[in-house]
Design a protein that fits this description.
Length: 313
Amino acid sequence: MDTMGAAPGTGPNTGPVSVVRRAAAKKTVADLPTDRTLVMGILNVTPDSFSDGGRFVAPPDTVVDHESAVHAGLSQHYAGADIVDVGGESTRPGADPVEPEEEQRRILPVLEALFTGGAVVSVDTRHPSTAAAAIAAAPGPEHLIINDVSGMVTAAEMPQVVADGGVRVIITHNRGDAQTMQSRAQYDDVVAEVVAELQQIRDRYLDAGVPAERIILDPGIGFAKTAAQSWELLRHLDRIVALGHPVLLGVSRKGFLGELLARSGAPREAQGRDAATLALNALAAQAGVWAVRVHDVEPTVDAMKAVGALRRA
C-alpha cells in the first residue's frame, strides 16, 4: 500500500499515514461536477456524535486515532464523495462543548492528510480560530469550505475570518448551541421564519465582504426544530433554493427519521435509517439542492447520478 507523508503527530505513533491508493492531483471546488447534486461525506473525529462518535476518539482521555480517521476520509473520497466534511465537535442536541484547541488537535492532522490525498474538505466548526487554522492548512481557498452550524449565534468574528480567507461558507439555520437549540423550536410559520433568519445570517457575511456566490445555505434540519417542523421545511425546500444560493441538505440518520421508523415505540437505530435518508436526498436533488451531507457515501453518489441523468433527459 502506498504511503504519504503526514504532519508530525499524525497517527498513534506519529509515523507516515498509509493511504487507500496513490495520492491524486488536489481537487478544488471548481473541479466538482455541475451536472448533479454533490455528495458530502461525514467524518466525525469526536467521541460523542450521534451516529459515528467514538470511532476515532476514545474516552476517557480522548486519544485520537488520526490514522484510522484519515483512512475513513480517504475511503469516502475514493468512493465518490465530492467533499469530505470533518468535524471535531459534536453538534447533536445536548452535546458538550469542545475548546477550540482540542477541536484543532483532533482535526488538523486529518485535514492535512486529506488535502494531500486530493480531497476537497469542509470543516464543521463554530470557532473562528479553528476556521482560521483550517484556512492556513489548506493548499488554497478553493480546496476548503467552512461549515458553521451556529446560525443565529454565529461568532461575531467568523464572517471576517471567512472573508479574509477567501473560502466558501455554509451557513445553517439554528437558534442556539447544542445545549439550548431544542428549547428554541418555537415558530408561528417555520418556513417563513427560517427563510428570514437565514437571510439575516447571510447579510452578516455579505457585510463582511464575502461574495454572494461563496455563500451556501443549509435549512438546518433538526437544529432548533421538532420533527414536524423538519418535515414542513423539507416540503418547502423550493423556498430555500429560491433564495439564489447553493443549498446543502443534511438529513442523514437524524432523529426525526428514527421517530418515523420506530418499532414498538422505540426509534430506529441510527445505522438503520440510511434507506429513508437516501429517499429524501433523491427528492431533494430533484428540488435542486447543491449538495447532500451523508454518512453512507457510495449509494448516495449512485442516486445523485441517476437523478442528475433524469433531470437532464
